[in-house]
Amino acid sequence: MPAFKRSLFALAALLAVLIASPALAQGAPDIAGTWSGQISTNTGDVTLVLHVARGEDGKLTASIENFDQNPGNPAPITEIAAADGKLTFKVAPISASYQGSWDEAAQHWKGTLTQGAELPLNLAKGGPPSKPVVAGLDGVWVGSVERNGVKLRQVLRIRTNEQGTFALYDSPDQMVIAVPVSDLAREGQAVSLSALRGLAKFAGTLSQAGNELTGTWTTPNQPDVTTTFVRATEEQIAAQLQPARPQTPKEPFPYKVEEVSFDNPAFADVHLGGSLTLPEGKGPFPAAIMITGSGAQDRDETIMDHKPFAVIADHLTRHGIAVLRFDDRGIGKSTGNYGNATSADLATDANAAFAYLATRPEIRHDAIGFIGHSEGGMIGPIAMSTNPDVAYFVSLAGPGTNLPQLMLSQRRLLTAQMGLSEEEINRQEPVMAALFKAIADADTPEAGYAAAMAVLTPEAKTALGMPVDMDGALVVRQVSGPWFQYFFKYDPVPNLSRIKVPVLALNGSLDLQVPAKENLPVIREALKNNPDVTIVELPSLNHLFQTAKTGSVGEYRDISETVSPAALELISDWISQRFVKP
Fold it and tell me: CA dihedral defined by 519, 508, 545, 152, rounded to 10 degrees?
């Protein structure tokens, strides 16, 4: 997902880390009770509520609630400690943690929230105020607008509970999911609301039957558009909540599945958990190590209810190839801090997985390879540059061009599918190129952040369609930090050119995130001295290797297919021809 996928999809999860100054830790009150605070994102502010209880034995139990996006459904906190003016807690199911210190002057816990990304979060005593009750609008409302010839689906999800009426806005084709709606109001049949920090405003009229809402969206630098929202049926809601995923593997399996774990000796705090699938029959077997794309992901590379790595592992194992897939550091059963990791750091995780497989008697130690998707197609060659024993490499939509160019191409293709005009794209692109260059040219992530902030002049904000008074940090935080700085500095060609073992490089013709027409020729040229290279552009497949119509990210969830059978067969046949003994 964009940059490949460092995403905003984690807005509903939420928790983080700050190294706070001991000078702030004076006179901290009892942590028991209710605390709340807001995190700020480019799509709006989100309120988190921490509920803490102390038992008779003094033991703390706690939960955390996303008040704006999932009110009334607190997630249990798995670890919490408050002592000497410091507060820490973890929420294992969403791979999140918090660490802060008591600020006596401000009377709140001062910290930063990290779940893949780091966001400041200060927690003050008490919960947020209830929201106003807006009657007669509860339900899921679906509609669409057209921007520059592109149809964009729109969804409003409204519900009322004892804390008031809550509304969320989705624009799936623009990768906008679960954005809190503000200023929802109804006066008679007139309904109004705003979203995306007030940049998108809707005013409409509810039909007398109460099942249609027709009105106008107003956004900066765009012509007004009219849309009609229709209240969805129960069947439509059920289909949205439980989309069909027929390829997801289900037990019983005709192979062994083993829960495994291993350490990364390069990082003392990184302990990786994963699944090893072993074919039936007598080994040893060739093996594949799966490397996820960007963003903190689980071992199945789960995205929008799809589990592509589980599907690939199932297919390969049924064809005699063992597969190890593991949770990214800090996710699931793996420990470590993903938010501070670069692609080079993640390459050491891949090599730790290789070292683990090399200890297993069921595995052919001369036939262990990497399969990397998206950023994983970049991490694989980085790992192989220090590991000469990797037997093969499969690149699934891996990059070939330099990464700033990739990001600009990706952004141009995706935003066109999201309804931006060519004029708007051309106006924004020089600003984004300058942001990427500022970060890449800096010596440290901190210097890169400062340089990028300097790029966002009032004129640059206007070009991006931002209000001049909007905090530039909301944009810069999305493209700065250790991962992005390494990413923008990286050139895939040198490491690709060093690979002398067999390589299979696949790309879909409808991939808008790593465009095949730009990247495959560069990969082919980089590997020209390698005698065993297979490069294939697969027609009608998108970035996830689904059979698609347009390649837009909005299709990812709609398509029931997780991975094209043609892609699965190509991968298994290619590996089998080289490493599976008849």
Answer: 100
